[in-house]
Structures are given as C-alpha cells and as structure tokens.
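$ run holo --ligand "protoporphyrin IX containing FE" --emit tokens
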Amino acid sequence: MSDFFSQGGYAFFVWGAYGMVVLVLVAEVLQLRLQHRTILARLGRLARLSQSSRPE
Amino acid sequence: MLEVIGLECRRGDRRLFSGLDLALEPGTLLHVRGRNGSGKTTLLRTLCGLFTPDAGEVRWRGESIRALAEDYRRELLYFGHLNGIKSDLTGIENLSIAARLDGDPVGIDDVWQALARIGLRGFEDLPTRMLSQGQKKRVALARLILSRAKLWVLDEPFTALDVEAVALLQGLIADHVAGGGLAVLTTHQEVPLTSGQVARLDLGD
Amino acid sequence: MLEVIGLECRRGDRRLFSGLDLALEPGTLLHVRGRNGSGKTTLLRTLCGLFTPDAGEVRWRGESIRALAEDYRRELLYFGHLNGIKSDLTGIENLSIAARLDGDPVGIDDVWQALARIGLRGFEDLPTRMLSQGQKKRVALARLILSRAKLWVLDEPFTALDVEAVALLQGLIADHVAGGGLAVLTTHQEVPLTSGQVARLDLGD
Amino acid sequence: MWAVFWCVLKRDLLLAMRRRTDVLTTLFFFMIVVSLFPLGVGTERQVLQILGPGVVWVAALLASMLALERLFAADYEDGTLEQMLLTAQPLSLLVLAKVGAHWLLTGLPLVLIAPLVGMQYHLSDAQIGIMMLSLLLGTPILSLIGAIGAALTLGLRGGGILLSLLILPLYIPVLVYGSGAIEVSVIDLSDTMPYLSLLGAFLLAALTLAPLASAAALKISLE
Amino acid sequence: MWAVFWCVLKRDLLLAMRRRTDVLTTLFFFMIVVSLFPLGVGTERQVLQILGPGVVWVAALLASMLALERLFAADYEDGTLEQMLLTAQPLSLLVLAKVGAHWLLTGLPLVLIAPLVGMQYHLSDAQIGIMMLSLLLGTPILSLIGAIGAALTLGLRGGGILLSLLILPLYIPVLVYGSGAIEVSVIDLSDTMPYLSLLGAFLLAALTLAPLASAAALKISLE
Amino acid sequence: MTLNWFKFASPATFYPLAGRLTRPFWILTGVLLVIGLYWGFFQTADQLGGSNPQKEYYRIIFIHVPAAWMSMWLYIVLVFWAAIGLVFNTRLSFMMANAVAPTGAVFTFLALWTGAFWGRPSWGTYWDWDPRLTSELVLFFLYIGYMALHSAIDDTRRADRASALLALVGLVMVPVIYWSINCPDPTQCAALHQRSGLGKIESNILFSMLTMTLAFWMYSFATSFMRLRSIILTREAEASWVQELLNREHSR
Ligand code: HEM
Ligand SMILES: Nc1ncnc2c1ncn2[C@@H]1O[C@H](COP(=O)(O)OP(=O)(O)OP(=O)(O)O)[C@@H](O)[C@H]1O
Ligand SMILES: Nc1ncnc2c1ncn2[C@@H]1O[C@H](COP(=O)(O)OP(=O)(O)OP(=O)(O)O)[C@@H](O)[C@H]1O
Ligand SMILES: [Mg+2]
Ligand SMILES: [Mg+2]
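-- output --
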C-alpha cells in the first residue's frame, strides 16, 4: 500500500499532478451546481416579485 | 447661514457670472434657474467646494468653506448629474456604504426602511445594474431620507422620475426646509415648489 | 420601395418589437414614435443595416439590404444621436470629407454655400470644437443639403436646435419628400410635420 | 476614522469580487509580458537567468501601470468619486484605502505568482524568495506613486499612454533596487539587505506622501 | 475607390497634426521602456548586446499595442465611425486607410528612432540596419493584427489591458522572426534573408486578411 | 433564410434535453475513469525501459495527454459553434461556444500543470520554452481572452459575436504561432517535446491513456451541458417556458 502511495519515490510529482486534476475538476463541478442553483433561486424570486407587483 | 460674496466663475475663457451675492437663512429653498450652459451646475459645485471660484467666496456660519473643510462637508449633501451609485452593488450595499462615508450612524434597518419608503420594496438586494433608470435614481435619492445634513444641494433631482416619485421628493424637500434645513436646487421641469420660503436666482443674460 | 417584413429586434434579453411590417413608397415621411427605451433608435439602426435583426428583414427596391450592401448605402443618409463630426476639423473640412466618403461629387463651393444656408456664415473655418452645441448640430445637418441620397433616416434631428433652425430643417425634409424621397424620423418634441404624405408608427406597449 | 478606511477597502474588494475578470486580466497581462521575452531573446538558460529579475520587474511596472488607469476611472464615471470628495473624511485616507484595495487585487497576485515566473526563467529558490520579498515591498510603492498619475489623467482622452509617460520615470528607483536585490542574491543573500531596506524606506515615504498628492490631484481633476 | 482610401488617410494625418502630443507619446513610451531595461538588468556590454533585439521588439510590441487602443476610439465616440460604416465603400478599405495612417504616425517613428536605441544597446551598424528593416516589415503587421483587437474592444471598460490580453499572444510570430533576424545578423548578414522574407509574407497575409476581420469586428461592436 | 432548421434546436427544447443527457454522461465519465485509472496504476509496469527509461512518474501520461488533447479539441468545438453562430445568427450555438470555453480552459491549465510536474523529474525543469509548451500556454491565453472579452461586454449579443470572431482569429493564428516557435530559425525546426507515434507506446499504457481521454471527453460533455443549462436560464429568463419551469420548481 505504501508502495503504491510512494510511486517509486515520485509521489510528489504523481500525486501533485493527479491532485490538481481532481481539485480543479471537482471545483468546476461544484461551481456549476452552485451557479445553477443561484440562478434558479434568483429567477424564482424575480418571478414572484413581478407577480406580486402586478396583482391580477 | 450660507453666504455667497462677490462670486465669479469662468469656464474656458467665458465668464459665467460675476459679483454674485447671496445670503440664505435656515428654512429657505433656493431655486437656481437659467438656460442650458448658463452656469447652474457650476454655481452648485462652487457652493459645495468642488469648484474653486475665480473670485469671491462661499461662507457657512460666517466662516469660509475652504477653512471649514471637513466640518462643512459633514453638514452638506450634494446630489449631482451623476447618481453616484455603483451598478454592481445592491441598493442596500450602496446606501449603507454611502451612509458610513457620510458619517451618519445608520443601522441596516434604517436602510431597508428608506428603500421601502422611496418605493423600492422587493428590489433592495438586486444589483442596481438590473434596475431601470428611474429606479436607480430612487436608490440615490434614498440618501436624502437617511441624511442628517443641514444643507442639501440638488442638481436637477427630478429628471427620470415619474409623477409619484416627484411628489415624494417634493415632500422630502418640504420637510427638510420646514425643519430648518437649507436646500439649493435646479430644475428645468416646471415643478411647483411648495415649501416654506422660496428664493429664486436667475443666471445668464 | 422600402419594405420591412416580420422584423423582430432584441436588446439584452428583452424583445423590443416583433412581427413588424411596413411598406413605404417614394414621397413618404415615416414618423416613428414611442417612449424612451421603446426601441426607436434600434429600429432606425436596423433600417440602416447597422443592427442585425433577430428575425425578419429589410428590403430596398425589393431586394434584401444585406445583399445590396454598398448599393443600398449609396442611397442612404443616416443621422444619429451622435453628430458624426470631428471637433478638431473645421466645418468645411468635416463636410467635404463626409461628402467624399458618401461618394457625392461635391465641390468646395457647394460646401461653403451649404454652410451659409444652414446659418453658419463666418464660422466655416473654425474648428467645430469652438462652436456651440446647436451650431455643431447645424454643421452635421448641412450634410442634408449636400446629400443626394434617396432615403433619409433621422434620429431626433430637432434636439438642441433653435426655432429658426427647426423651421429650416423642416423645409429641407419637406423638399426632400416632395421630390420623391423617403424619410424616416423620430422626435420627442412636438414638431408639426408639414410634408406630403406622413405615416406614423408607434412602438412600445 | 479607520472605520472609513475599512469601509472603502471592503467596498472595493466587494466590487472586484463582482467582476472577477478585471483582476485576472492584470495577472495575465503580467504573465504574457514575462513570457514574451524568452521568445524575443532566446531560450538559453544563462541568458534567461540574467534577464529574469529585470524582466519580472519591468513587467510588474507595466502591469501595475496599466491597471492603475482604472483605479479611479469607474468611480469617476458613476459619480461616486465626487461623493467621496464630499464626505467628512480626509480624502487622502480614502485614497489610501482605494490604493490598498487596488494593491491587494493587482499587486499581491503578482507577488504570489512570482515563483511561477521564476521557474520559467530558471531562477534558484533563494532568488525566487528575494524576488517575492522585493515585489512585496516594491509593488505597493508602484500603486501609491501610480495613483498620483491616475488621479491627474482622470477622464482624459488617451489617458493610458499619457499616464505611462508621467509615471514610468518615477518608477525607476523601485525598478533599480527591486531588480538589484534579486541580482545580488545570487552571490550572497545578506547582500540584499541594503536593497530591501531602501525599498522599505521608499515604501514608508510613499505611504505618507503619495496619498496626499493623489488627493490633491483628484480635487484638481474633478473641478 | 482609392480616392476614398486617400481621403481617409489624409483625414487621419490631418487630425494627428492638430493634436501632435498623441504621436509623440507613443515614441516616448517606446524610448522609456527600452531605457528601463538597462536599469533593471545591469549595464554590461555583452548582456545588453544579447538583450537588445528582444527588448527593442518587445517594446515595439507594447508601444504599438498601447497606441492601438485609440485607433478607432475617437471616431467611435463622436459618431464618425458609424458614418463610415454607412458609406458606399467597403469598410475594410477604410480600415486599411486608418491602419495605414496609424502606422505612419506610430510605427514609422519607431523605425526611425531605432538607430538611437541600437546605440544604447551597443549593437553594430549591420545589426542596426537589420533592426530597422525588420521593424519596417514587422510594425505594420502589429498595427494590422492589433486593429482587430482594437475593433473588438471598442468602448469597453478597461479596454486597454483587455486589448493586450487579446492581441499580445498573437504578436508572437512577429516577435520571434523580428528579433531572430537581428540576432543572426551578428554572424552573417545573408542569414537574415529567410527571416525577412517570412516577415514579408506575414505582412502580405495580414494586409489581405486583417482588414476584413477588423471590418467584421467593427460591425459587431457598433450594433 | 433556407437554413431555418437550426432554429429547431431552440433553447427551449434544448434545456430539458441537456438536463436529461447530463446524468448518462456523468455515469460514463465515472465508469471510464475507474477503468482507466485502475488499468493505469495496476496493470502497467512500474518502470519503462528503452532509450529513455522512465520511472513511475510516467503515470502522469494518463492525465497529461488526455488533458492536452481535450484542450485542443474543445477549442475546435468552440470555434465550430462560434462560426455557426456568426454565419447563421443562431443564439443556441453561441451559448454552446460559451458553455465549452471554461471547460477547455480548465483542461488547458491541467495540461500545463501536469506537464510541468512531469517535466521536473523527466527533464529536470518545470518549464521550458519548448514549442508545444509555449503554444499550449498561448492556447490558455486565448481561452482566457475569449472569456474575458465575453464578460467585458454587457450586451450579450455583441459579446457573443465579438468573442466568436476572436476565437476564429485565434484558430488561424495558433498554428502560425506553434510553427513560429517550433522553427525560430526558418531554415530548421527543432522541438524538445518528445514526439513518438502512438504506435510506439506500450499497449497497456495506450489503452489506459485512451480510456482516460474518453473519460475526459464525457466529462466535457457533462459539464458543458450543465453550464449550457445555466446560460440558457439566464438568457431566456423572460421567456414563458422559463416562467412555467420556475413555477413548477417553486411548487415542488
Ligand atoms: C499541446 C499540448 C501538449 C500535447 C499535445 C502533449 C502531448 C504529449 C504527449 C503525447 C506526450 C507523450 C510523449 C511520449 O510519447 O513520450 C507528452 C509527454 C510529455 N509532456 Fe506533453 N503535451 C502537451 C503539452 C505539454 C506541456 C504544456 C508540458 C509542460 C508544462 C508538457 C510536458 C510533457 C512532458 C515533461 C512529457 C514527458 C516527455 C518525456 O517522455 O520525456 N506537455 N506530451
Ligand atoms: N469641464 C468644463 N470645461 C470647460 N467648460 C465647461 C466645462 N463644463 C461646462 N463648461 C462650460 O461652462 C458653461 C456652464 O456650464 P454648466 O454645466 O454650469 O451649465 P448649466 O447651467 O448647468 O447647464 P445645463 O442646464 O445644461 O445643465 C457652459 O458654457 C459649458 O460649455
Ligand atoms: N447597447 C445596448 N445594449 C443593450 N441594451 C440596449 C443597448 N442600447 C439600448 N438598449 C436597450 O434597448 C432598449 C431600446 O433602446 P433604444 O435606444 O432603441 O430606445 P429609444 O426608443 O431610441 O429611446 P430614446 O427615446 O431614449 O432614444 C432600451 O431598453 C435600452 O435599455
Ligand atoms: Mg447642469
Ligand atoms: Mg433613441
């Protein structure tokens, strides 16, 4: 197991590269989900606002 | 309280006005009138100390405003051609920052109330970029509600406002003057100024 | 002669108008009306080909103006919110360059005469920077005298002009239309348009 | 009084967060200018090592200068600057806060990205350390001095290039000592002390004088 | 058709004559940037000789880019650009004329001042000759490519630094061959031929393609 | 316009479609990632022999090469949609271009990063001014420029068209830039970056690398669709179908 993690002494480089990939890709996905939710929330609020200001 | 003595202002090589004398007591509204380019904006900016006159001076409580500097500015509220609000900030943010800079001890609740009173309920935390022209102007005017300044200098405050907002603003000015404040304003529109004592000043030939 | 078919324009995410149809024959003046922000300027710019509509098209003599390109532009004169004159050049220089670019074979005498007719005698060779707002506008309008375009598109041509200049401009438009030309214009001011056949178009809800 | 300082600082940071690209652009400009040199000069290791300090500093100068063009411009255009002139606070304090925010947004990122650039130019770790330290001391000076120029050229046509003409000559001392520090660090780290302390002294002087000058310039520009 | 080309060219030159400072500013910027490097890098003869070509070219890149920011801006602000879009002439021809005038006012002066810079960097006469030649071929390319960026960023907030982000990377080929030509000229003058003929080919390509792209960009920006 | 069929792919119909497609792409991404990584780490040798013996750090290849390929491929996709948008004036294609750009930039960054982390043990330096590296950097700048230009323009339509044009110009210039850096001396070209044909790579490594490439590709689909949905929502905020959608969301 520790053999696997040490990657023949190149752990820093291998895991540095893989780590950044994981970090960036996960960050992108999280950002996307957050963005989608904020947009839905804001649009929903706007829609309710315009309905309440135009009582029909 | 506000005195103007022998004021002369030039723009480019043209003299806009000279030998202008004025004295305003608390509870007065001064309405400055004149054609486009006659120097109204220049006069108002001079009163605020934003523009240095070529001759004469402006006094507040008997002292030159140059000498008073910050003490004068604390009692002053200027509302110019530009709204002075950041389009990336929300109405709440804009107003609380403005109040903090003016040194008015204003709580967040006051800000919400001011926005509600000026007719922006529901729009408080949208970036002002998303508001219409008139709504932006309202955000800026909400400062008048929060302000405790003694002297209001308003350059064309009625433009872009609808009838209802004009009435509201007029009410604010009337209250301010009735409470012993001073106001100087310009407007091209025919707005009946129904507040206390109204003085008029005509610029230009 | 000028046809508009199913035109739809959006600005930002807002639809300004859609399904707009029009057909103008020679000798017609079209007056486009509407509130601020209702899309008048956008429509006029679309007619000139400056703005690409989101749907529909504009036709000139039966052909799409996209296809005609330069052939259409040769017959077109657009007068927008901006004067389109360089403040560092004199009136004479401005006009002769504009005429050369429009491809109108105009001599230097014609330019002097045009400026005199529009009421700028004596100001011909001052840099336009030194002219007043209204005089600048007159320099720009002198292009109407020199132009031989068939279609005039004028966006608020009357602003900043005094009564006399308004009358002159109205005369120019009337002559143009009477001579079989077409004109499309917008104006907020109430200006009696006394030329031949006047069509009206109201934008906005 | 400091409440106002923090208020303006936070405001500017908040505004920057609402428009993130403006911040990134400066950083990328810096990166691009730094990357252009090896392409123009050749990619030999030794040459690059000699070039490194100078290039980094010149690029920092240019990036900071170009970003400064916008320091007061936005506030000027929407009238908030005018309002700041009319608050009951010394204008120089507000200017200091604005410059502080500006440095946090454009200067600090340069300091942080410096190791990357150092790698591109094959600098040693010690050199990179000194580079970061000198940038940390030097870039605030650039922002402070540049603010004077930005205030003077506010709202002028062709302001950008005029600004550069006005302030680049003033940047020279910073450039000389900043890149000097990195260069001597090859030989002996302790040699860099005089350079760094000089930069520190400049920074103090700039911190006290530049806000006053910028405030005066702003008042003139807004008349 | 060419009558229109000359008309626009003459107009722009006339305008520049009415405002001479704009022209001088570019020149001074170039001189300042070039003079900053010896301050940052040290003044040893050999180092400077190696650096010279690259620095001159990078400075030319930056100067040309900064000047480009104003290429269409003035005409855009007063509405004359709009009118140009509506003339019965192909817009790309007018763009070409404007770029031509711009190059005469900002590129050509750089070529002419190059000998001075060469002396600062202790370049030989042959190198200086090649430098002028390469600048003569290269700077028009910079103006032509830059015009696309200028048209795209017309009227934007923070346009200057955005413009640099967009077009500096596109300048790389010119930089590589321009400074390459000067470098090889140390060894053998005839070695420079491939470089110069490549630059010439680039110039021809840019002359035909860039005006079209700029014209398209202008149409987009003016909608 | 004869090609009105482009408009069938309207934002309104594409929004739910993209939503339904996202999940399958995520599943594909996950499966391919697991296979690729498992194979890469446990079914390939610890050492590579040959003229340039490589130790374990060669495993970076399983992310480096796919990231580099995706960065270029996504740029081509971006330009494709941008060009379609410019020619046919369809809003959805501009939105597609916009949705692809950030993912492309992410992969470009990752190619640079992983390359640097490979370069250090293999070449002894994180960075060199090698043509491939430099042009990858330029590509990164182009992505950033595209996004910066788009966000600097407030009018979305102008933003779409202006940045599309920029992307096109970039497509023309990138090969020229690559070539000019690769041949700084026009009479001869030299490159530091090893260039071995795919055929020369050991088959286990190749399998793993290609699987990872596919995984990254599926990931690009998934993220682009997610982003596309957000873009469609903001841009079509006033459309009636969005209002209905919001009502449905709200009542839930
Ligand atoms: C255009 C983008 C790039 C592509 C298409 C690409 C592609 C490749 C490929 C196919 C390999 C495997 C070579 C082989 O067969 O051994 C490789 C190896 C490598 N790449 Fe990249 N790469 C790119 C960018 C980069 C960048 C930006 C860096 C560094 C920051 C980099 C650093 C490396 C290193 C160090 C190796 C190992 C070379 C060796 O075997 O010694 N690459 N790359
Ligand atoms: N920054 C300036 N520099 C030089 N001259 C100026 C400047 N601003 C205004 N002027 C000139 O000063 C004169 C007065 O301008 P001012 O703005 O005070 O007029 P105003 O009465 O407010 O006009 P308006 O009704 O249009 O607001 C005008 O002739 C104008 O051309
Ligand atoms: N460049 C632009 N980008 C985005 N939206 C714009 C742009 N220009 C105008 N708009 C918006 O398009 C709408 C119509 O603008 P337009 O200029 O056509 O109105 P108008 O009828 O000419 O108004 P006015 O009477 O004020 O001239 C407005 O709501 C405006 O906010
Ligand atoms: Mg005024
Ligand atoms: Mg209009």
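-- notes --
The beta strands of chain B are 2-11, 14-24, 28-33, 55-60, 63-64, 76-79, 151-155, 182-186, 197-202.
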